[in-house]
Amino acid sequence: MEIKIKQITYFYLLAFGIAWIFWIPMALYHYEIIDIKIPIIIGQSIGAFAPFIAVLIISRTLRDKSIFNLPFRQLKRSKQQIPLLVMASVFAVIIAICVSLVNRATGETGSLTIIKSPVYNKLGNSVYMVIIIQFFTSLIGSPLGEEIGWRGFVLKNLKSKIGQIPAGIIVGSLWWLWHIPLFIVLNIPITLFSYLQMLGFSFFIDYLFLKSENNILVAMLAHQSITTKFTFFDGKTNEPEGLMVLWGILFLVLIFKTIRNKQNLFIPK
User: Fold this and answer.
1) Which residues of the chain have pLDDT under 50?
2) Does 268 reside within a domain?
3) Three-state secondary structure call for residue 37
């Protein structure tokens, strides 16, 4: 079934509505405006599956199971895409390493290290095993709950109507906007910097997902790579030089794709 713009709009209304029912009260409680407390682990977890639920509702409403099932059909090709799966799993940490190398080359400090934490320090080298366990167990959280919507439903269908770059801007921008109440709860700054950073990472997920011919597992791994980087690793990626390196690498990747495929990424395909 051909997905129309209005159906994509319905998806966003559902995804925002379901998540924000929990996240806005959590943000209001954070500002001490209301006394209703929703435990973060519950509100965050349910909200993370709002895109998943939204796609499921649209699939049932239109009586077309393929809308929900199609993103998972490419999973059978994963064995042939192992290099891409590995790249998706580590790309965010690779970018952090690139930032550290640029820092060293320019005489700045900020090598890639495990984020300082009393818990991590006590673990010693065992922290690396914790990172691996956390990476794979967390795939059934936000990566699964979100990516079937952002990439599996919206990006794939919107790209065919307005082109990859315009579709990527919309997906990345609304992805950032959708998180704002949760950012408030988690004390994450809501700034132009955070928007550009999230948009840049979103474009990388788009690129890897489309390169895999819409394998949702690739998008999930790329999503988790970003979470793992910000949970465990520090390398000045949250500073201006980090943003410059992120977008510099992104531009090179998109230019290479344009030249190699002789494709205009602004034209629907």
Assistant:
1) none
2) no
3) coil
